[in-house]
Specification:
358 residues; nine-stranded mixed β-sheet; three-stranded antiparallel β-sheet; 17 strands; elongated
Length: 358
């Protein structure tokens, strides 16, 4: 990417981890540049207990090389952006370039305005750039190298950034669901745009000459493995406790469901029996049995005394009309008009038919 730079008179600097008593990494920088950084450990964050950062600054040319703390995320489990309590933040998985775009305002720093340029392309030699050997490549993890160029105003001055990084993503079956852990490790090189080309080779020489300490990496990996084993045991215990609670809950729910089904079945049977039961026979009502009255009700008819029958025979008329008239010929008039008198101007005699029970 750049032309070679003479680093023979550069100053050596190491980022020290006070917790482990080992240097995290070492680098060389030109005279006049300042170096600073820090290593933090949080024992409660057993998924990602360690984070470190460093930066090299040339105050004269306002140039900078920054090694950012690793951005670690997990999904699902909580609201996006909220910590999960184990060293990661909740964030849905997305493409590496989109994740870089999400983090861009943080990487550009305070005072940065809206970028006027943001170009992202693959970085095939990411492992070489970050000095990641084959022994450090974890099977089952997807890695993607990224290289981006960004132009953005900072406090009114145009500034250029070059960002190199790699994205990782791994999906595993956790205790209760599928969990995706993913993240991004980035280095940011920047300077004022009008002098960037003059200092670019120096920025890249610092970045490419930064070497991780294998002994420190090995110590961190052992801690990570121990944490993973403890984490797996914790999840196994949680799975067993959850299984027992689930079985007890299933039994309780099953019994409640059975009771509900029995109650519903009993209620349904009672309602059906009540609907099918014939109504009681009207007290003192002649001529129609209870079963026959029930059949008449279901059929939308009602039994009446036939006034033309000397034996008091029964006939059936509509049960939905208010008044039924019948003449000596057996003809019937059914009406809802209670004021109607069919005897007016009639050559036959009409009588109101008596319904049983009325």
């Amino acid at each position: 990417m750049t032309t070679p730079v003479d680093t023979s008179n550069w100053t050596s600097w190491a980022l020290q981890d006070r917790q482990l008593g080992l240097p995290v990494l070492g680098l060389r920088h030109p005279p006049g540049w300042t170096a600073q950084g820090d290593v933090s450990w949080n024992a409660l964050n057993n998924e990602s207990p360690e984070h470190h950062w460093y930066q090299l600054v040339d105050g004269e040319r306002n140039a900078m090389v920054q090694g950012w703390p690793r951005f670690d995320f997990t999904w699902p489990g909580g609201a996006p952006g909220q910590p999960n309590g184990h060293g990661r933040a909740y964030l849905p998985p997305e493409s590496p370039d989109r994740l870089l775009g999400t983090l861009l305002p943080q990487l550009l720093g305070q005072g940065a305005g809206q970028p006027t340029r943001f170009e992202v392309q693959p970085l095939p030699d990411w492992a070489q750039r970050f000095h990641v050997g084959p022994e450090s490549i974890t099977p089952g993890v997807d890695y993607t190298g990224l290289y981006a160029v960004v132009d953005a105003p900072v406090q009114g001055l145009p500034r250029r950034y070059e960002i190199v990084g790699f994205h990782y993503s791994v999906t595993n079956q956790a205790a209760f669901s599928t969990i995706t852990n993913h993240g991004l490790l980035v280095m940011v090189l920047s300077a004022n745009a009008n002098g960037y080309d003059d200092v670019r080779a120096t920025l890249w020489a610092i970045n490419d000459g930064t070497l991780p300490n294998p002994a420190w990496n090995a110590a961190v990996n052992r801690i990570g493995q121990n944490n993973a084993a403890a984490f797996d045991q914790q999840f196994a215990q949680a799975r067993w406790a959850s299984f027992q609670a689930e079985q007890a809950g299933i039994a309780r729910v099953g019994q409640a469901a059975a009771d509900l089904r029995n109650t519903q079945a009993g209620n349904a049977q009672a309602a059906f029996n009540a609907m099918m039961a014939p109504p009681p026979a009207p007290a003192g009502g002649p001529g129609v049995s209870a079963q026959e009255a029930w059949r008449n009700e279901l059929g939308g008819v009602t039994a009446v005394e036939d006034p033309t029958s000397s034996q008091g025979n029964t006939k059936y008329v509509s049960s939905s009309t208010a008044v039924t008239w019948q003449n000596e010929k057996g003809e019937v008039i059914e009406t809802d008009d209670v004021n109607l008198d069919p005897n007016v101007n009639s050559s036959t005699t009409w009588k109101v038919v008596s319904r049983y029970g009325e």
